[in-house]
């Protein structure tokens, strides 16, 4: 029963934080540490359940994806640019992730790195919100190719746990003149190939461990997946509303406070 409650709690943490600029991976690492679990044993679980949150985006934006698919069939320029932008932004993380995946894995159990990255990222959000140029790009398909490449490169910063994939892509988009809502939605859509790639790599690498019953089992991963999916469904629309009305600064202050508290706690245990 204790493990089931922990799995549900971790699923909730993932669903709440995946699309907020606060680092879902960082929060899962801190939650795992707080629960006293072996970070290496739960590493696959923490990565794979992110697909539950990603599925929530597919469900919430199904009309957008359907319209793009129909547009591709007609070779509609807007649909073609939409898909091009997502794929181009995905490429830098795919290449770098394959090249340094061992170094990335070494950081995934380091809660101190997470706490520091949370604080630094919070400060960066405040700076970008104050210094970013006027937002004049509205619509994912309308983001110029050069800016798409820049956003994709900045997404690579999220390989450091605690930085936040959504935070890096959203801040990059804002700094390059993309309107807030469009920046958030571009981050949502970019998460689909990025997390699919990361999860597939993790499953292939750890397939023997999963099938042998070592580590966290498939049943636990399935439950965490479902919980993350349901929670993300509820969080995403709320997040878009908050961003449209208040911007990203509230999340910056949360990062600074949470990161500082986590660092102090980690230094005392």
UniProtKB/TrEMBL annotation:
Pfam family, one: BacA
Lipid bilayer topology: Multi-pass membrane protein
Subcellular location: Cell membrane
Reaction catalysed by this enzyme: di-trans,octa-cis-undecaprenyl diphosphate + H2O = di-trans,octa-cis-undecaprenyl phosphate + phosphate + H(+)
Top-level EC class: hydrolase
EC number: 3.6.1.27
InterPro entries in alphabetical order: UppP
Main location: membrane
Keywords, sorted A to Z: Antibiotic resistance, Cell membrane, Cell shape, Cell wall biogenesis/degradation, Hydrolase, Membrane, Peptidoglycan synthesis, Transmembrane, Transmembrane helix
Transmembrane region(s): 6-30, 42-62, 82-100, 107-128, 186-204, 216-240, 252-268
HAMAP family: Undec_diphosphatase
Role according to the record: Catalyzes the dephosphorylation of undecaprenyl diphosphate (UPP). Confers resistance to bacitracin.
Similarity comment: family membership: Belongs to the UppP family.
Other comment: Bacitracin is thought to be involved in the inhibition of peptidoglycan synthesis by sequestering undecaprenyl diphosphate, thereby reducing the pool of lipid carrier available.
Protein name: Undecaprenyl-diphosphatase
Species of the source: Sphingomonas glacialis
């Amino acid at each position: 029963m204790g493990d089931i409650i922990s799995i549900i709690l971790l699923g909730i943490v993932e669903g709440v934080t995946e699309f907020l600029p606060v680092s879902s991976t960082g929060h899962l690492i801190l939650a795992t540490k707080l629960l006293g679990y072996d970070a290496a044993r739960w590493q696959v679980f923490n990565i794979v359940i992110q697909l539950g949150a990603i599925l929530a985006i597919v469900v919430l934006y199904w009309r957008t994806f359907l319209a793009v698919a129909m547009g591709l069939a007609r070779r509609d320029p807007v649909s073609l640019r939409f898909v091009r932008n997502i794929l181009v932004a995905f490429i830098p993380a795919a290449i770098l992730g394959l090249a340094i995946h061992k170094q990335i894995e070494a950081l995934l159990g380091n809660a101190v790195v997470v706490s520091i990255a949370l604080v630094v990222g919070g400060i960066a959000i405040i700076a970008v919100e104050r210094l970013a140029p006027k937002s004049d790009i509205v619509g994912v398909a309308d983001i110029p190719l050069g800016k798409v490449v820049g956003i994709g490169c900045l997404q690579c910063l999220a390989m450091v746990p605690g930085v936040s994939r959504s935070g890096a892509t959203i801040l990059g988009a804002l700094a390059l003149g993309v309107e807030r809502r469009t920046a958030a939605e571009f981050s949502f859509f970019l998460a689909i190939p990025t997390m699919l790639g990361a999860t597939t790599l993790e499953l292939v690498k750890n397939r023997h461990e999963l099938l042998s019953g070592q580590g966290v089992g498939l049943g636990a991963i399935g439950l965490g997946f479902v919980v993350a999916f349901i929670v993300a469904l509820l969080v995403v629309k709320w997040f878009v509303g908050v961003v449209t009305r208040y911007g990203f600064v509230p999340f910056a202050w949360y990062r600074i406070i949470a990161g500082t508290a986590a660092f102090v706690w980690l230094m005392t245990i």
